[in-house]
Amino acid sequence: MTERSFQEYYPPELSYCYGCGRLNPQGHHLKSYWEGEVSVARFTPEPYHTAVPGFVNGGVLASLVDCHGTGTAAAAAYRSEQRSMDSLPTHRFVTASLRVDYLKPTPIGVELRLEGRVRAISGRKVILDIALSAGGQVTVKGEVTAVEIPPGMWEAARAALASGPG
Fold first, then answer.
1. Tell me, what DSSP letter sits at residue 19?
2. Using one digit for the tens of pLDDT, what is the confidence trace for 93-120?
3. If we measure between CA atoms, which residue out of 76, 62, 77, 78 comes closest to residue 30?
4. pLDDT tens per residue across span 42-97
5. Beta bridge mates, 52
6. Nearest 5 degrees, angle CA 135-CA 146-CA 130?
7. What's the CATH number of domain 6-162, 3.40.710.10, 3.10.129.10, 3.40.50.1460, 3.10.350.10?
8. Is 1 helix (H, G, I), strand (E, B) or coil?
């Protein structure tokens, strides 16, 4: 894929997230893209993502839903303003609410596909529906309410980065 993922537009001080931060060496490095009106990310879980042998840990699945949701919220905010993700002012979102429904066990060793759909955009808030599938079967459904990062959080992230990202 030649286009940049939503997460690749994040400024450095907001690129350390465990789920989607490109600068976190231990993270998932989730990357989300538009496919028409649907946002899509793919992730292949490793054996260390195990809950019960052969199946993915629920917390890992929740973090994928979470990070795909906040990335999609940022992209949707830009899209609603009809501007590119590298334009100013910068939009970046965090999770205000996360609901995850586990429909069936999610196997390890299979590429997972996350699909996000924007349900509503209102001011600084975006509500999204996320479906996670393995082998074409939806195993997890999530709802993410994302809110734009307040200025104080940006400043705190910059200060923390100045003293080390951890």
1. T
2. 999 999 999 999 999 999 999 999 999 9
3. 62
4. 999 999 999 999 999 999 999 999 999 999 999 999 999 999 999 999 999 999 99
5. none
6. 15
7. 3.10.129.10
8. coil
Q: How many CA atoms lie within 13 A of 106 on its CB side?
A: 33
Which two three-digit tokens encode residue 162?
Answer: 């100045």
Taking the C-alpha atoms of residue 88 and residue 160, their distance in angstroms, rounded to an integer, is 23
Instruction: Output 34 or 15, whichever has higher pLDDT.
Output: 34
What is the domain partition of the chain in residue ranges? 6-162
Contacts of 84 (CB under 8 A, 6+ apart): 78
Whole-number Å distance between alpha carbons of 111 and 45:
7
- Record the pTM: 0.93
Q: Which two tokens stand for residue 156?
A: 């705190």
Q: What is the C-alpha separation between 136 and 119, in angstroms, rounded?
A: 23
